């Protein structure tokens, strides 16, 4: 099978029989789940098995049906039930006598810390919920949240949940254009943002991005602005803009009755890159999503309320929604939230935080692990990491070498590692070993979770043999799955269901967009994306979206963007550009391209390389051969080039890459 992935090629895949590791006895003895009959039970009792997930929540009205599938693939879970997500993450823990238990331990960029007990968080969330109501927010109004990793971010999410207003969090590092596109698509009239934030010690202006975004929107927007920078960045507020503290100050001590939501009511929207430039608004619901993230936090991350749990992701992505905010708080545990980067002020920053907070469970991305590895073991060695009992990995495949390093130098050789495969659309983890049960095979994520069925298929949808690669699909619905796209059910069907399903036979197959293979034990190894989506440092980007940002620059005649594998598991962006005849000098165009990408998508999409070439390789019918560029970028043997109209260009491009890499330009 040919898979068009920039990311993770077979080179990064583990050998066929990687070293297995069994979970250590010390872990198994205390684990939440240790009996492997759970797989069989879930199979036999499906879909009723998911009652166990629902039972982790407090329902206002019990649900009547576990799964309704008459309108498949628009599945409905726990129908008839009502509940409130903020009640489940806050009030019920107070009622259980845990009001002074730490809910969030916030670690600021400059070493400042704040602890919010469940009661503190309850008070903050209620005040903001009252304030949002005061601004006119009603149930089902989409509230956009554009905040960095400061406590107001989860507070805002829970305040929205409390009043039944879906939130749409936009990662703070995305551009003004990206914010505008998302607010426009969701017709969102409320925004919670901040003046700016610190990035590597410098004050960075967020508010000016917001001002630019709002200029291009048709709707009127009411904005609350958190003052993060104080005098470091004075700002002026317009008439429809409110200072967050002043606003909330008017509602001091007020409480808001949590609104009972239908299990299938939308809890939030999360935009993610698709194959076209238009981001997809993935819709998650209140009952199924919350039940699923609570259940996976308990079973996959082995979390107990007494734990201190740290998912070192950004809440601006699904990972943070599910495993910094909703999962851990639903279970009543302590969740760590870190504002900064791993290497500021020094490269031991994360380990200092683990040590000081006695973190039990730590979850990060392979790209971070590879950076730790490069920096060296002396940084973790400076600290006592013995509180850790479980490690997690997410976002891309973790290559065996990084796995072993993580296991040895962070986990002290004693922590199991859960390599969790999932997506914005799956809501929570769907493939991973259970840490108290399964052997780990570095490089392979593991078997599907109990109740989940994966199938790797060929282009015709037929299951391939173990060891062969194909398209990763999920053949059974699960409570945390996306219900639809905010842009419409048709796009939902097109993007995920049409390709491999057989509606006449009532067979619905979810297409993940990833390539994978399965071994004899049913362990899934991920091989990267099959579409035009690439995964850069754990963030999903669309090559088409970057391409249009490049092509929009004056002087650029044509552009193609592909992913280049940057060592095991990592991907970087390569842009190929041909310029117009009397264009500006290359250096100027290069700068303009970088600026435009930063402006229209965000810094994270900036290319590692911009390669200038007189022409792009094209087929006789004039299509740019991106697959060839991908092979060239990855120093791979070139596939079939007989369809090329201009084969001579390949050599020139290879030379241009060499120049670009040696800085000889
Ligand atoms: C894509 C989803 C879900 C949180 C992170 C990003 C890749 C995710 C793994 C893993 C190999 C992984 C896939 C997937 N991915 N986890 N453990 N091993 N690849 O969420 O932005 O929706 O991206 O991330 O390619 O499709 P996302």
Brief account:
30% of the residues lie in helices and 22% in strands. With 665 residues, it is of the alpha/beta class.
Question: How large is the share of residues in beta strands?
Answer: 15-25%
Q: For the largest sheet, list the strands in their spatial order.
A: 12-11-8-6-7-14-15-23
Helical percent range?
25-40%
Number of helices: 20
The CATH topology annotation of the domain at 86-101 and 118-259 reads as Rossmann fold
User: Can you tell me the CATH class of the domain at 86-101 and 118-259?
Assistant: Alpha Beta
- Terminal Cα separation, in Å? 37 Å
CATH level-two architecture of the domain at 86-101 and 118-259: 3-Layer(aba) Sandwich
Low-confidence stretches: 1-17
Rounded to an integer in angstroms, the radius of gyration calculated over CA atoms is 24 Å
Structural class: alpha/beta
Q: What is the average per-residue confidence, as pLDDT, rounded to a whole number?
A: 91
Give the total of beta strands. Answer: 30
Shape: globular
Question: Ions, cofactors, ligands: which are bound?
Answer: 5'-O-[(S)-butoxy(hydroxy)phosphoryl]adenosine
Largest sheet: 8 strands, mixed
